[in-house]
Design brief:
Blueprint (H helix, E strand, L loop, with lengths): L8 H22 L6 H19 L9 H5 L3 H18 L4 E7 L2 E4 L9 E7 L2 E9 L1
Antiparallel strand pairs: 1-2, 1-4, 3-4
């Protein structure tokens, strides 16, 4: 029988330990991308905008600013610019938006393939959908 060298079990354990420490250190140093964080934050932005708009008084008639723009096509057209201006003031500058009502929409066309936040606000005149995404 030929003499064979054997690696000591202590050396194997030490090697595995070093690799484990290296992996843990690299994970903390580099970080891992959190899945769905962008969408969750964007959903909160959209929800916050919907909450603010649904509690504001109307400019001319209705219960709230959102119920006013869902009353009729003419009410939406009359309030279109004011709604767009108000949404721009509510949201952070690094966000784009689209507010869809039963009578029309204000804001920007949503690009495909980007994380988007969404909130739906029910009103007497129908649902209002608010979508936001990073510019």
């Amino acid at each position: 029988m030929a003499d064979r060298g054997q690696l000591s079990l202590t050396m194997v354990e030490a090697g595995v330990g070093v690799l484990l420490l290296f992996a843990a250190t690299a994970t903390f140093a580099l970080g891992l991308p959190a899945a769905g964080v962008d969408e969750a934050q964007l959903d909160r932005y959209a929800d916050d905008a919907g909450t603010v708009l649904s509690r504001e008084p109307p400019q001319h008639g209705g219960l709230t600013r959102l119920s006013e723009v869902t009353q009729s096509k003419s009410a939406f057209e009359r309030e279109r610019a004011a709604l767009a201006h108000r949404v721009e003031r509510i949201l952070p500058e690094n966000l784009m938006y689209r507010v869809e009502t039963p009578h029309g929409a204000v804001g920007f066309r949503r690009p495909t393939g980007v994380p988007t936040g969404r909130a739906t606000v029910p009103t007497v005149g129908g649902r209002v959908v608010i979508r936001v995404w990073y510019a």
